[in-house]
Amino acid sequence: MRIVAVETRLVELPLPRPIGTAIHAIRSVGCVLVTLRTDDGIAGESFVFTINGARLAAFDEMIRGLGELIVGRDPHDTGAIWSDLWMEVNPTGHAGVTIAAMSSLDVACWDIVGRAADLPLSKVFGACRDSVDTYASSGLWLDASLSDIAEEATCFVEQGFTAVKLRIGNDTVIADIERVRAVRSAIGDDVRLLIDANQKFVPKDAIRLGRRLDEFDITWFEEPVAVHDVRGCAEVRAALDIPIATGETEFTSRGIKQLLDQRAADIVMPDLQRIGGYTEFRRSAALAAADDTPVSSHFFTEHSLCVAAATPNCISVEHVDWFAPLFAESVELRDGRLVVPNRPGTCFTFR
């Protein structure tokens, strides 16, 4: 089997309404849909995205440029392909657009591997579960009012979610406390509540806020400080009882290793696009497992399910519905968990 073509398609998915975090104003997501075709007639799919479609053409160009290097190769040789692409992007750098392009090609190759074997990738990777814990992450944005987030949190629970994530990052501690209080009151004590600061704070402010939130039984405090401030994140973790989750903005297992070495996270959160695809996700998860640290995948709900199902230390997959319109199939929520599909490859196909 050989790869004979690399195809891309650019699409924009508008959100139901513009939303805001501590560092983003988001009205849509632009996606590059990637399809690898083989001489056996099997196609593998993947995608990358940018907020508001910013610089999407650069992602497309990088994917097509690196894609030329894998035409003629056997997609089963995922390790060799990944290593060769890693060497190829050395002059450009091992972060950002280069890794996103590598990730898309890696995921698409693995999709072919699963489809050729007529097996879901969860089985190819070595499944250890048939459902994965999740949390509602498509709402509770920073720009929403207290009444709106309370109502939205209640709706998530009614849909069957047993955990929800709230965005915080206001300019005052009191404002964030009131947001947490509103959601906790709406969902009750039995639903888990996660908070995400989206890198808003300096360490001292994150610690001050975190100590005030102990009474609300917070499952984790995500990205409390700037992504580059690994030492500061470690300081926050050491000072608080609330578990610290971070890592979605780290590139490849090298970034995850830095977090682990610096004792900066209780939970690491590989993002399929930034981490380097399935090949590097699995390496990152193995590093975390050797350090007795759980992982929780960031975004890419549909495509993360198969690798989460085969990762013993993966505690959850983030549920974000932004990309659902891309796929012919839907994720299934059952008893607060996402069911791992049994279809070939990633188990999801583009419309």
Explain what the structure shows.
It contains twelve helices and 13 strands. The chain has 351 residues and is of the alpha/beta class. It folds into two domains: 3-117, 2-Layer Sandwich (Enolase-like, domain 1); 123-339, TIM Barrel (Alpha-Beta Barrel). The strands form three sheets. Strands 10-11-4-13-12 form a five-stranded mixed β-sheet. Strand 2 and strand 3 form a beta hairpin. Helix 1 (56-67) crosses helix 3 and helix 7 (203-212) runs parallel beside helix 8. The mean pLDDT is 97.
Total of DSSP H or I helical runs spanning 4+ residues: 12
Number of domains: 2
Residues in helix, %: 25-40%
Strand content: 15-25%
Poorly predicted residue ranges = none
Give the C-level CATH assignment of the largest domain.
Alpha Beta
Question: Alpha-carbon distance between the termini?
Answer: 25 Å
Give the tally of β-strands: 13
Q: Name the CATH architecture of the largest domain.
A: Alpha-Beta Barrel
CATH superfamily of the largest domain: Enolase-like C-terminal domain
| Secondary-structure-derived class | alpha/beta
Question: Averaged pLDDT, please?
Answer: 97
Sheet with the most strands, sense and barrel status: 5 strands, mixed
CATH topology value of the largest domain: TIM Barrel
Shape by Cα distribution: globular
Tell me the Rg in angstroms: 20 Å
Q: How would you spell out the order of helices and strands?
A: EEEHHHHEHEHEHEHEHEHHEHEEE
- Biggest sheet: strand arrangement: 10-11-4-13-12
Write the layout of secondary structure elements.
Blueprint: E1 3-20, E2 25-38, E3 43-51, H1 56-67, H2 78-88, H3 97-117, H4 121-125, E4 131-136, H5 146-159, E5 163-167, H6 173-187, E6 192-196, H7 203-212, E7 218-222, H8 230-239, E8 244-246, H9 252-261, E9 267-268, H10 272-275, H11 277-290, E10 295-297, H12 301-309, E11 314-319, E12 333-334, E13 337-339
